[in-house]
Amino acid sequence: MIPAAFDYHRPGTLDEALKLLTSHGDQAKVLSGGMSLLPMLKLRLASFAHLVDIGRVPGLDFIKEEGGSLRIGAMTRQSTLERSDLIRSKYPILADAVPLIADPLVRNRGTVGGNVANGDPGNDQPAIMIALGATFVAKGPKGERSVPANQFYKGLYETALARNEILTEVRIPVPPARSGGAYAKLKRKTGDFAVAAAAVQLTLDAKGAVERAGIALTNAGLTPLNAADAAKYLVGKMPDEKTIVEAAKMAAAKSSPSADRRGSVEYKKEMARVLTTRALRKAVQRAGGK
Q: Is the pTM of this model over 0.90?
């Protein structure tokens, strides 16, 4: 299908992009990589009179550690993240996930900001950012503000981002010693969304007990699911098999997937449990646990 007609804008600065969003209001939409937005426009699942392409806006493409945080610019391509030695060495949960996002063609164009900002519960990185305790930085006409990832997603394709704001950066706390993360995903074929997926990030104390934990699920409801109860259950406990199994059951019990061609509700909930178990085991191993 062909998208409805729209005006295309390509600002050269962030301020220019913000002015366009403000002037055109609800009829404007930010375009970054376009890997989610353009198919929706072509299928007439969405329509906007103005697209504001931020591809030429400088200063939004970077990966660096600074001030106790891993900082990722919103226009950083997934393929750049995939090739990063820093990500592979210190952030294995992201290293697990990026090669599983769609296919190489999409990863060459798709951006981190686009993946986390459009509110699609089938995208992989929103759940990962929740598990990592990330913060999203947005800029609008009134200045810059930060929103915790676990407070960002409000509903299906609905986020805390205002129409005249642009996500500029993701900030992830640098993990302390004895930390580990993992992402486990089940999909039918290359390029498909997850049947189910689980993101886990945890830190062990000197005795090997869980000091901090984050668990989140992909495609488990209308928003990425923050399995906060399951994560809280782990804190203070030794991450043995019994504890891991119970935490995975708690996470899956909170899920509310929809039945579709990928499987029934019961099947998806069971896969969420299985994948959370696998991610927990790998995260514990990477953190130096048994």
A: yes
